[in-house]
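Work Package 3 (structural annotation) set out to generate three-dimensional models for the target panel prioritized at the project kickoff. During this period the team completed the workflow that converts sequence records into discrete structure tokens, so that structures can be stored uniformly alongside our sequence database. As a representative example, we reproduce one entry of 237 residues exactly as it appears in the project archive.
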Amino acid sequence: MDTGPRTVDVNGITLAYRAWGAQDAPPVVLLHCRGADGADWTPIARRLADGPHPRRVYAPDLRGHGGSSRLGDRPGAYAHEALRDDVLGFLGALGVDRADVVGHSLGGAVAYLLAQRAPGLVRRLVLEDVPAPVPLDPPRPPAERPAGDLPYDWAMIRATDAQRNAPDPAWGEHMHRITAPTLLVAGGPRSFVPQREITFLAGLIPNARVVTVDAGHLVHEARPEEFLGVVEPFLAH
């Protein structure tokens, strides 16, 4: 059974989140891509909550996104490390001391930083079409703000673009700290993420493997059955 958006105070801001499944089921955390929010995961979350291995599923809206943004919490600080620390605080506030973590794109980068910072917290890690932390060449040019109201803070776009262009070298250097078995789900040649970067990222993580689902960047949205077909068995172990 899924619940409507809830809130929790973390690191001086208020985060919105959604939850599905029995309270006492093993927890899994789903982290959305840039510009989306936790509702993006709803079909996947319902399946994980009610599947053959029922889970307690949490999907927070990262700072500056979705409900967390509409609550008025637009702190202006959107470094990947801040998003990571929010997730760490979010799990602490909910009393979750060990969980599987699934992250898509930006959410995947947050997930691997979390697994580096708190390896004992992450039991299994899934990274959906997540690029390696290597500088973009050429750099991504400054984005133009769309007209009208946005479901996210535009300052977040500028901040995450800057870190995508020039990621902290420590992100790659600290991949060896990840102890969780890791599954990288690649979107194949239709994705705008260079697939060689996903292979490179897998080589940095001690216990990682890559599975390709030829769906483009939005694997869990475009091919949910195939996504679940590789993710559910991985999380069941």
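The first strand starts at residue 6 and ends at 10.
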